[in-house]
Fold this protein.
Amino acid sequence: MPATPTRRRLRVYAFDPSLSTRLDMWRANQVTLNLPWEPLGVWNGREAVKGPVGDYLEVVDVDPASGLSYEPVDLDEARLLASDGVEASEIDPKFHQQMVYAVGMNTIVHFERALGRSAMWNPRWVFRGGKWSQEYVHRLRMYPHAMREANAYYSPDKKAILFGYFKAVDDGSGLIMPGSTVFTCLSHDIIAHEVTHALLDGLHPYFTDASNADVLAFHEAFADIVAIFSRFSMPEVVRTELARAQGRFDAENMLGKLAQQFGAALGKRKGLREYIGKEADPSLIKRTMEPHDRGAILVAAVFDAFMGIYRHRTRDLMRIATGGTGVMPDGDLHPDLVERLSREAFTSARHVLTICVRALDYCPPVDITFGEYLRSLITADTDMVPDDDKSYRVAIIEGFRRHGIYPEGVNSMSEEALRWERPQFSEGLQECIAAALEEVERREKKDGRREEVVPHGVFLRGTTPPPHLTQRGRAHVKMDRACTIIRDYLLKHLKDEPDIQWQLGVCAGKRTPGSVHALDSRGRPSFQVNRLRQARRVGPAGIEVADYVLEITQKRDGFIDPERQKEVDKPSRSAGGRSGGADFVMRGGCTLNIDMKSHQVRYCMAKNILSDRRLERQREFLGCGVPGMGIYSGKADRETFAMLHRH
Ligand SMILES: [Zn+2]
């Protein structure tokens, strides 16, 4: 019996189809992604259902606008296996299916490598047996032809990505034929961007609750950051572009433009969002509120950091190439130099992407700000690379500073000041957390012995797989159980310890203000333990950090009228009730990074539920009158991205 393959190669566009008609770009625009092998198609008892359907993604190619459903591509077919999949084509739906699958998986791979664990989709809330519970979502669905609209978005409700298609308008650029059909599912950037929204939602579900101006902007920026830096993982693209631009990233460089064809087809001549060659304006952040525009500032800061890192890594090469003048001679660069520069760009980009993803485990679970993200970046990187000899952190800080992004509550932009402090937990709290984790581990060991192994992926399409079937499903069930154990443990021991609760950013007990949801349905003191994840990260020098990442959150009713808030919060009222009729939801809690071996809490990123300043800030933000901001409030429907991405 031949061994199972380890990789699957699939052809995709590096940018989008429009660039294949440009003489200087067509070769770099067709790349082959090298993905981990997985069988595509699940066995339903009679036949293998194709899609492609893998362990993370399920491509469903029905087109409601035209009432058609397209035949699914069988990427396991011998002919396609031997030719790296279907040939790139604008009009072949089978290539469209292959493209969304391949770019989607590629994005997931980047993500998992940085986080040191499997990616999970955001669970679905279901009301069953009189209570709400979270149901495991095995696969994210991708609809390559979901609507006739100039839009593509991730739907947190449907756990799906919907790609639209539309007729191009004449933008006079000559890039695109007026009246031709533009498929958003063929844009590398758009696919990577949307899958990143879904991955981020799986990791931080409350980052879609716009409680301050940075939250949704962060979602957009992060999706763009991953899309841009995924591009640098394609060596052919980097090589071509650097040769064209004489080793520099300038305004004409394709590497910093996103969604070229999409932008052109909408009549916006340039890429949808451009990051290179803009002069930083540190005052812009104060007057920019629209999520994409505000997010672009964060992307620019990260891109500046990347350029700083690239410049630092290529200083010697540039000196040699320019004879010390810094000015490149006219004409083409030597191919060896292009090769060396591309390698440096590739490595810098991979490191920046890894740092950006890894920092997510160091972010507070709610109400994220750009400044806090900076602190998370610095802390995460210090953990993995204590000695910053390549000046990465200096470049990151410099990038953020240039764009006017400063964290609150720190008095300098030095590395020491930006790093999250080690928590000064009381012995009682530290012991309590350690004991809860020991309990989790004890139960896991006991259950582990009973666990049976069932082959992967045997279930009917459209049904929920029994969670014990796959590794990720098992991890989800384990996590769920662990969260309940920890929550019960913490509540039992911290019930009447307001000072200790304060350190975790939550509040449950006698003196809880009335607006805090501090009681569960049976009237017991309450907050939620949402997630316990394991992260095993390995740094470039081989340093290994194995952490539990624990997330605790709590809700509070917010009122636009401060008097009403005061009334509800009066100590005389019954503590911790649900006041009803709230105008918005405020959230608090913390993310804890806990050493997996010693169970010592290393970091605690808390956002206090009792913070009046935060409550006031959220109130102000929701009432700030930015167009469309009303729907971003706590009561907004969950199709935020459908609205945000519409053009
Ligand atoms: Zn987006």
